[in-house]
Amino acid sequence: MKVAIVGAGKLGLNVTEALMGSGYEVMLIDKDPVLLQKVSNQFDLLTVTGNAKDLDLLRRVNIHTYNYLVAVTDNDEKNMAICSFAKKLGCAEVIARVRDPEYVNQLDFIKEAMNIDYIVNPDLSIANEIFKYLVEKYTLTNGYFSAGLISIIEFTSDSLPIVIGKKICEIGKMLDNMLVVAISRNGKIIVPRGDTEVFDEDFLYVLGADEKVLKLKNIVHAKAQYTDLQKVMIAGGGKIGYYLARQLADVNVSVKIIEIDKARCEYLSEHLNNVLVLHGDATDLSLLEDENLDEMDAFVTVTGFDEENLLLALIANQKNIEDVVAKVSRKSYADLIEKMGISMAINPLDMTATEVLRFIQGSKRILFSKMIQGQAEFIEVMATKNMRLTGLPLSKLKIPEGIIIAAVHRGEEAIIPRGDTIIEEGDKVIVFFLLSQLQNLEKFFQTRKWSI
Question: Which domain holds residue 6?
Answer without folding.
Answer: 2-120
